[in-house]
Amino acid sequence: MTSEPTDAQLLAAHVAGDDRAFNTLMERHADRLWSIAIRVMNRPDDAADALQDAMISAFRRAADFRGDAAVTTWLHRIVVNACFDRLRRIAARPSDPLPEDADRSLSFASTRDDPETAAVRSSLADEVTAALHQLGADQRAALVLVDLEGYSMEQAARILGCAPGTVKSRCSRGRAKLAVLLQHLKEVD
Amino acid sequence: MGTDDAVAASNPGSPTEGASMISEEDVSRYLQAAPTVACPDDVLSRLRATIAGEVEFRHASRVEPDVDTPELKTRSPLWADDRVNDC
User: For site-directed labelling of A163, which of A73, A139, B7, B68 has its Cα 20 to 30 A away?
Assistant: First the structure.
């Protein structure tokens, strides 16, 4: 039985000229990368654009990966940076109307839930995503990395390019705002 | 909740003011419980097409080593490993 190549092996193979390696790596992590992009950005179209920017950047800069962090951490950093770049560009241009599907329900990677549990989780994810979008991008990104993706403060700080104390402060302020926005979840708990 | 109430009381105008708050731990729990969002098929197809374009671009811009002159570098005095004495 042959074992699957690790992320680092796939990235090394890509740098060495393997044409399929990067695609395999991207598809392996597509759901998590999309989760970050859609929760940091406000609109699906913008999230798709940011993720595309990020994948092009990762493809071209793969040789710069030094291996001192996990490949996923490196990819997440590139996605977050691409999202911030997009948000800056969006802020600088006149606002566009929201697309008709901007509030469409998200579909989820896990399909193992029974229908009732899946519905509850779907509803929760919609609530969380909507509440996150009430926050500023900095607080939103910090919470996405720490609470949703499970990174430590130090890891999130490396991804965001700031001090761990800054991440801690952003998370704390973001949670304080979410405590108001998600108050109704406690009532249905 | 006591801590949050104290925070609200000491931060007039803060988002916690005037509300019976859920705790930071509850917020974290809700966030952690939110499932990973599946990458939509149309987005994934677009990413695949983008990467295929990048692969083509890499092929087109690759400079192959000059197989006819493999010893060119080693013969060049610029690549000699002799000591240099500037004195």
Answer: B7
